[in-house]
Amino acid sequence: LFAAVEMAPRDPILGLNEQFNADTNPAKVNLGVGVYTDENGKLPLLACVKAAEEQLLAAARTRGYLPIDGFAAYDKAVQGLVFGADSAILAAGRVATVQALGGTGGLKVGADFLKRVNPNATVLISDPSWENHRALFTNAGFTVGTYPYYDADKKGVNFDAMLACLNAAEAGTIIVLHACCHNPTGYDITSAQWEQVIAAVKARGLVAFLDMAYQGFGDGIAEDGAVIGQFVAAGLDFFVSTSFSKSFSLYGERVGALSVVCESKEETARVLSQLKIVIRTNYSNPPTHGAQVVATVLNTPALRAQWEEELAGMRNRIKAMRGALVEKLKAAGVTADIDFITTQRGMFSYSGLTKPQMERLRGEFGVYGVDSGRICVAALNEKNLGYVADAIAKVM
Ligand code: LMR
């Protein structure tokens, strides 16, 4: 039966974890996967999460099935966070939100739903994009192309080329956009540029699918989510996938969501009914724990305030590490312009290092980053920074 099954390549991001775990180099540093570790190199358990878990444990909950679309208090809390608690479209019942298995799950439920609605549409992702975007939409049955994004010379976004591509896209094309903290480049477009993207989406009849996996890691929760308000104000129907993996440090709980903005309450009910079929036929209904933790935090004012503070702590530490990396690289003798590292946003730096350089970093120094040159600056700390900077300087 399996004689003709070919060996699949390792996942370009999660596959690095397997390689890292098998590496016996005692100095090894994992800057591959997008995971935040604290100043001691440890994955944090947020105090707000711990407090919520204590409350949930004390209540000794039973474990019935959740509804197909998830825990209602969670879906509502997600909506409040993404669209603003006093949003008019929420009051009008125009958003269908379902709990999903992480941000990836939200993307997949949305992709499968779109395949039913518009099976012949093309999907455009940014060039470059998160490695899994292409694979996920391809596996959902779509042809996936790219729109220009990164400008290597300018160390930023080639916005004119991006916009020209969107303005030439066929009606119905699905455009996957990074709401904030673009993965992998760390370069976001400005709110004025978002307005131009929105105008193109509207004029061409495109379908916007916003991936918001890093809300709060750029400039703040409201600041990073502002683009959602711009899409709403334009009167568009669109998709948003949400992830709490990073912002709650709940990676393994797979806690995310998909929200679909619709034209009316009646349309929302129809869309929700279809999303539920996608979920039911994939994994039936989502798990309880992560969503209850997130809902408890977001719906308890004191815990929410604590979460915002802890998230700001992570954001600020990452920014400090960006500055420190630049200093250490300069001290290690790097003369090339590397100040771009501090203007990038979110967990990643698109370093400009080539695949052979990344392979050398892994092979000779045990410093793991993605072949594209992406390194996770959220995993840097005072202890590994000098070693990492020296290693990078040597391969440059
Ligand atoms: C990443 O880009 O490293 C994260 O989003 C983790 C993942 O699932 O790839």
Automatic annotation (TrEMBL):
PROSITE patterns: AA_TRANSFER_CLASS_1
Cofactor(s) listed: pyridoxal 5'-phosphate
Pfam families: Aminotran_1_2
Keywords associated with the record: Aminotransferase, Pyridoxal phosphate, Transferase
Enzyme class, first EC level, given as a word: transferase
E.C. code: 2.6.1.-
GO cellular component: cytosol
Residue ranges annotated for the Aminotransferase class I/classII large domain, each copy included: 28-392
InterPro entries: Aminotransferase_I/II_large, Asp_trans, NHTrfase_class1_PyrdxlP-BS, PyrdxlP-dep_Trfase, PyrdxlP-dep_Trfase_major, PyrdxlP-dep_Trfase_small
Gene Ontology terms: biological process: L-phenylalanine biosynthetic process from chorismate via phenylpyruvate
GO MF term (any one): identical protein binding
Gene3D superfamilies: Aspartate Aminotransferase, domain 1, Type I PLP-dependent aspartate aminotransferase-like (Major domain)
Subunit structure: Homodimer.
Family of this protein: Belongs to the class-I pyridoxal-phosphate-dependent aminotransferase family.
Protein name per its UniProtKB record: Aminotransferase
